[in-house]
Write a structure and sequence with these properties.
The protein has about 130 residues and is of the alpha+beta class. It is built from three helices and eight strands. A hairpin with a 2-residue loop joins strand 5 and strand 6. The radius of gyration is 15 Å and the shape is elongated.
């Protein structure tokens, strides 16, 4: 079963919790046990597993990614803009896929774990393939 999650990301870089939508999709699928594979088909966006309980977590993740990969004008690849080039690198570091276990018809996640869609070149209409 292939499902798409459509979302509109806010301006700038952001982390969006897509866990509630994923839980709905898994429940509606009727699959009792298996794998849920997420794919982000964008070069300046990514997907990760982390805590969404404290909004400061997302702020810290984005701040450190900006520290590790600052927007600068000396990127060799600048097809669009320096921010776009930085977004490519951040997305490559975080990753474009995530595989989760489905057990008993539910996503197997820890108590504080959430699936976060990472936008590094917003705002955009984006899609996650589930």
């Amino acid at each position: 079963m292939l499902t798409f999650i459509e979302l509109q990301t806010p301006a700038g870089e952001s982390l969006t919790d897509v866990t509630p939508r994923l839980r709905e999709i898994v429940a509606a699928s009727g699959v009792p046990d298996g794998l849920c594979v997420l794919v982000v088909p964008h070069t300046t966006a990514a997907i990760t597993l982390n805590s969404a309980l404290d909004p400061a977590t997302a702020q810290d993740i984005l701040a450190d990614l900006r520290r590790l990969v600052p927007t600068r004008v000396d990127f060799a690849h600048q097809y669009d803009t320096p921010a776009d080039a930085a977004g490519h690198i951040k997305a490559a570091l975080v990753g474009h896929t995530l595989t989760l276990i489905v057990a008993g018809g539910r996503l197997l996640l820890g108590g504080s774990q959430s699936v976060l869609f990472c936008e590094f070149d917003g705002p955009r209409a984006r899609q996650v393939q589930v």
